Amino acid sequence: MRLPAPRQMRLSDGTELAYVTAGDPFNPALLLLHGFPSSANAFRDVIPGLAGAAYVIAPDLLGHGQSDVPPTPSYDAISKAISELLTHLAIGRRFIHIHDWGAAVGLQIAMQAPELVSGLIIQNANAHRTGFGPVWDAVLKFWSEPTKENEAAATPDLTFEFTREQYTGGLPEDVAATIRGDPWVEDWRVMNLPGRMEAHRALIGDYKSHAARFDTIAAYLKQWQPPALMLWGRHDPYFDIAETLSWMQDLPRMEAHVFDGGHFLLETHAEPALSLMIEFIKRTQEMHPDRRPSRTSARSAGMTSPTQQRLRLSGGTELCFITAGDASNPALLLLHGFPSSSRTFQGIIPGLARVAFVIAPDLPGYGQSAPLPAPSFEAFSGAIQELLTHLAIDRRFIYLHDWGAPVGLQVAMQSPDLVCGLIIQSANAHRTGFGPQWQATFEFWSNPTEENEREATAFLTLEGTREQYLGGLPEDVAARVQGEPWVEDWRVMNQPGGMETQRALLADYANHAARFSVIADYIEKRQPPALMLWGRHDPFFDIAETLSWMQDLPRMEAHIFDGGHFLLETHAEAAAALMTDFIERTQRP
Prior knowledge:
Elements: E1 7-10, E2 16-22, E3 29-33, H1 47-50, E4 55-59, H2 75-88, E5 94-99, H3 101-112, E6 117-123, H4 137-144, H5 148-154, H6 160-168, H7 173-176, H8 183-191, H9 196-212, H10 214-224, E7 228-233, H11 242-250, E8 255-259, H12 270-285, H13 296-299, E9 307-312, E10 318-324, E11 331-335, H14 349-352, E12 357-361, H15 377-390, E13 396-401, H16 404-414, E14 419-425, H17 439-446, H18 450-456, H19 462-470, H20 475-478, H21 485-493, H22 498-514, H23 516-526, E15 530-535, H24 544-552, E16 557-561, H25 568-587
Parallel strand pairs: 3-4, 3-5, 5-6, 6-7, 7-8, 11-12, 11-13, 13-14, 14-15, 15-16
Antiparallel strand pairs: 1-2, 2-4, 8-16, 9-10, 10-12
Helix pairs in contact: 2-3, 4-5, 6-8, 15-16, 17-18, 19-21
């Protein structure tokens, strides 16, 4: 797409600033701040769509695009120029999209007038030491020892090839192939205009001043907690993926979406990024953040109702399960966690049945399935294998949640060639997932006395069951949970064999943890397509677990929501849309 015609503004020092505007000035303002080596052109594919929801302002930062080089290039000078622009346009409250070097500018603007920040959109933008990977070693040395020799070592990459690498560096070939045109060619042309190379070298050196403000930025974020949306390209070779976790720790209500893209995410993922940005702007502007336009419900019209069935397993136990959709579609096995049942998926099954043959069992001892005589995750996996055989299921997607993960991962590893993809929702497969609340369980595993078992199973109460749904949730998010699903779970848990099942599985989870290295080996060798859906307020699995999964699966998209352990209770619609897209995308030839 082509940008609207740029406008020019003469700044107070006589420098010319080029910028683009689009949309109705009465809409909320959205300031788009690009990174090196681009310009407002970085946003060409999203501006037309954003203009329907916001008054878009996309400047060429000084020294980039059609803007002049400032007399003394620095992030302070560029921030001052953008502040002049906002004053010129009479912009009050604003959303700020920060990317790369745009972060050093946009965060200054945000901190100068924090009460005017409607929200931040964070796209491969660094504000923590964790963002500096090995590629930064030469620059960090130049900052500490600013000699000519070290400057040369830090900046020799200002070449045509390095400019191209900003767009394609780290990208898998199939992703790089989706970049249209050669945007780096125009960037390189502009970089070779008078004064531009000097400006870029100056800004590389001045990035040190941005890093020196990291503590100040952290204090601003802690105090003001601006609404925020993260859009991240996971193959970015310049900012380490660990930076995503640092942002999430600073902003505990931020949703984070990590795509199979690179440093210039909008070159390959403009469409999903645009949808998320529009939804974020609209939601943030509404008084009630749970008021969202419906997508899944409209698609569900005409769907056949899910069918509940029963299967008598070879050991005599009855397994209850739901199926929905066309059996000729790819199978989707939905595996719930403690203390729920297939009821967990009631809000998403109708929509998913459009694209998949959905199979949602009640694990033995849950919902309407009878308990097993000797409950274990291995026995559960055997039961699910019997069900898949009974239904003549070949290739399948597997949804893993909580205690469904030990079951589903065993099923996956037993027949890895049949796995179309994994959907990972608050499912633990690494030591990083165990937070402090697991200490009593660890002690029980290492010393299984009656006293230690009592401590480890103290959560097996009505209140503990309720906490599975509401634990860690902000009040406004908890208010979105409909009904009291924990009441039915608690009733089932108190049926004959119910509590025995829970105690047995808690003890057996130690065997799942003992298989973490085997699971890691399977993931490394097979690299199944994967989608992550995670509730960031989950009190049971630490948020660091998301990074471990991302490190294991470098092509996985990760979407981290303002939800909890039972994400589908509050974010079913968004999750269903992502799952539908994942299944359809993964099935394309």
